[in-house]
Sequence to fold (1218 residues):
Amino acid sequence: MEDFLHSIQLLNYTVAAVALPLFAAFINFCLPVKSKWAGWVSTIAILLSCVLSARVFAGVWNNNPVHAQHVWFTVGQTEVMAGLLLNNLSVLLLLLVSLIALPVHIYSTAYMAHDDRRSRYFTYLSFFCFSMLALVVVDSLVLFYAFWELVGFSSYLLIGFWLTRNKAVQANKKAFIMNRIGDIGLLSAIIILFTQYHTFDIVQLFAQKGLVAQSVIKDGVWIAATGQMPAIWQYVACAGIFLAVAAKSAQFPLHTWLPDAMEGPTSVSALIHAATMVAAGVFLLGRVYPMFTGTELTILAVTGCFTAFMAATIALTQNDLKRILAYSTISQLGFMILAMGVGAYASSLFHLATHAFFKCLLFLVAGIVIHEMQHVKEENNLDIDAQDISLMGGLRKKLPITFIVAVIGSLALVGLPLTSGYLSKDGILIQAFEWSEGKSVLFKLIPVLALLTSWLTAFYVTRLMVKVFFGEFRLLKSYPNAKLHMHDGGLQYKLPIILLAVCCLFPLFSFNPFSYGHAWLFSGLTSLGNHEGESIYHTIIPVLVNIISVVVLYAAYVIYTKPNGFKFQQSGFLYRLSYNQWYLDAIYQRFVVKPVLRLCSATFWVDRNVIDGFLHLLTRISGYIAKLTAWTDEHIVDGFLHLMASIVQSIGNFARRFQNGKIQYYLYSMLVIVLVLFILKILI
Amino acid sequence: MNILTILLLVPVLFGLIIILTPSSLRASFKYITLLATLIQLGISIWMYLHFKTGAAYGGINHEDQYQFVQKLPWISLNLGSAGKMQIDYFIGVDGMSIALLVMTSLVMVIATLSSWEIKSNLKGFFLLFLLLDMAVIGVFCALDFFLFYLFYELMLLPLYFLIGMWGGARREYAAIKFFLYTLFGSVFMMLVMVGLYLSVTDPATGNHTFNIIQMMNPANYSAQSVFSIAGHQTILGMPARTVGFVVLFIAFAIKVPVVPLHTWLPDAHVEAPTPVSIILAGVLLKIGGYGIIRICLGIFPEVATTGAFWLGQLGVISILYGAFNALAQKDLKRMIAYSSVSHMGFVLLGIASQTAEGISGAMMQMVSHGFLSTMLFFLVGVLYNRVHDRGINHFRGLSTLMPKYTAFVMIAFFASLGLPGFSAFVAEAFTLAGTFRSSSVNGLVPYWMAVCGSLGILLSAAYFLWTLQRMFFGPESLKGGDVWKIALTDLNLREKLTLAPLAIIAIALGVMPSLVFEKINDSVLSLIQFLQLK
Fold:
């Protein structure tokens, strides 16, 4: 009974935690566009959500999962349920999302303070929080899909928040459409699962001994307790999920929207496009993990690894501060997908959590830097790009606090010891090596590539840090007279970044800074994934990774701090490949967008000329037929009548002449008739 | 007096009032019409609330399960040895019709509110409008084929004049195209109707009958008749029942419209004045879908089953072809017209699947599209009224000039592209789910059709968002320069009051789909059962 009451209470808290941001969004929607209160309404809502989430987390973590549902509506004989599912995975994400959202909200109140459409911004932001929080706790695939798309929708609104900027509104369209590709993948997968198992319920489907786990493929037929269909559809369902993951979590080949999404306000990039929404793909994998076995997992591992590597190589050469961070996000998400692929389920989610903190922190730092650069730009009327790192430098003296937290965030991103990133990333690498053990050489490439990527990470992070915070302020070279009034900003800036920086250190996750196996978060999630085995990799990998990382770090530091030192060649094929982001945008434009548009014009041409042309032809033919019948009417039918009339008339005229009153004519006529009769008689 | 009959008589009565009102009071006509439609809306909401649900109210092929029924002998001719010709005034509703009736009544109110833009010959306009209103309501509740046909044809006349007299530049072309297209379908429909009449006898009286529900019972067909199931008669070497089905299907497919019978729609929409566009898209297209469910599936179920593949195929083609065409448009109204073709393709696909999910989805799609297309065309009308231009490339950055307008456009666009939380999402998702299930349940429609259909959802995002980006976002730039800038004022109160209920309904149906599903579910199940028994 007490248990029951306890779970009811938890459910109520969860509903409140989810609904509060929605309520805030509604209030902000009703407030005037420039209202000063908007920010605080949203912030208070998310603060309460955060507290409630923490309470729910405390109640559910490592306890029995709570699951409750209601009939939502009935279609035919199918009852579609709506409900909440609170297990370790969902409460972790619930807490994580609200915990990350809180500093971002505080930061936003200052960051967006001078915008003309503040209350819209906070409406969208709160709506996003609502969708994201709901996404992690719902128990049915239909609802999951609904919130999955709603987070995409709020991201659309926020990317295009400055809707008079052409780049921003193109970016949000691109983001939504590319996410839609994933969405129809997810929808197809849900429909396939529904057809096979007759339910949308996540617990029934994906529990440890759930429907999915019990189904088998035999002789090309996919058999479940509830029905069967050709095996190909199981692969299609997996492919659909994969598409969804790739689109939302920006994996190759659907990642190109994320760098463009940086057109939105930086606070949004921090929350949505770094910490929470983009991780939803990984969360989806976590939810439907039992669907993936064997080859499908290998595909995940390969994609994740390739994405991580590709994004890291791109990040090496970019000059836009936010774009570098965006590619770094893609790269780190690649690590998470890789981890899922090699069976490191817990490590993947662990990395999701740690990454959320340090990447959010780095974006907020970037926001401060850009904000200050923007000030300089406006104050001096300069024609510069405020996000270009080649114009920055030496900012550590002007923005000391920002610098310190940025260093902490960067070290966590590189994964050096004492940071949270070390715990989660090394876990992934170690398990990737263990996974490749006993497999062919090709499989061994995957962990090696991942290792290489983590060194690349060390390099581009150092490059970014050095270019922004060390050396001289390069802007002064081009504009020596520019006035510089730069500072860290008020409490609304400092508090969030300090808070997040603290969360990037090891004590939050584990009291043993060197072993991921001891992290509470890791052990709380291991039940679903693999078990920890002691192997040689546990010592070799961390040592190897970190020693070489430090070397790379130092090398990069030296290269970029010395103004006249070593310079990279900026013309080779590899440089261009990296600088142009592997030419993927151009390829998509040329081989997807243009052909589709051509196809559209073609179908419209068909519509105009073939279908309507056929109709017009019919009209013309019936016109001709009408003319023909009119002619027939006039000349043949009427002609015949006229002919008859004229024949009759001429006969009449002819016969009339016999009756002209002259006796001789009558006598002639009589004679002729008698003669004719006579002749006829002889002949017949 | 029967409530349905009152519903039918309201527009007639108010039409009479308009006739009797002198033209000097022409400003009052729109209010009279508005009052008529509001009364109608009130009645249909009352009916919706009092509509009983449960297995005993399935309707479809059970005459006693229909509600609000009225049946009166209407034309009764003694034909000597040929028996007695009996035509009934027979109306009633089941789940299928009630949902569409309520939708229609609301769309009519909105259409009236958008008639404020009509400035010429008001008496004629509102008379024809009310006549059309009556005919449309009639189609949804007629249960006698003759009566159905009468209402069906009666819709044509006012529409022809409404497009031809109050339309745009190429109105005559559009009106005649629309008229001929529809007439082409309905002329042959009459032949089938007569054939059915001669084949079916009412078991109670022994006379031939036009009763649609009697036509659904194979036992009522006399053995030697044309459309007898056991008789296997042929027309021109083809099975008679297949011919009958195809003819009726073509008639309704023109209305839906199904590719390749759709080309009247973009022209008619582009040329028609806003209220007529609204009625065309909101109500008329649904008559096609309703006709297919009630008449084609009801009377020729076994042909519908054997031909399910082709119906599904046409549905998929409509979805994709319409979407591609929408992407190619430069005129906003034409773009929306093609999007209607695409969205109505889902209706056909859902019907073809013959699963509960598919048919519920199709019905939901009809209701949802009724509201959403109304909203879309009203929004186009708002813009067109202000500057008399609709070219997508002629506008840019409207969001700064007309923020409220843009907000409603975004709601309408996102609802139409199937964003969860709006009605279209539920409709399309369940249509596709039903389509996919079909292979496992009854083997009618192959799996891949659902996958192809889902591509339509992707494309709809593409054309709506592209339009949104080009017309509403970005820096402001108008083809008409400052003149347009002054003309483009934001929404006024009447417009907001018109759009708000539509937006609210779209959200309400998306969040609580049971508002529709609860009422139609028994009929859907009854239809599925009927189709399985055949």
Summary: Chain B has a mean pLDDT of 90. Residues 307-534 of chain B form one domain.
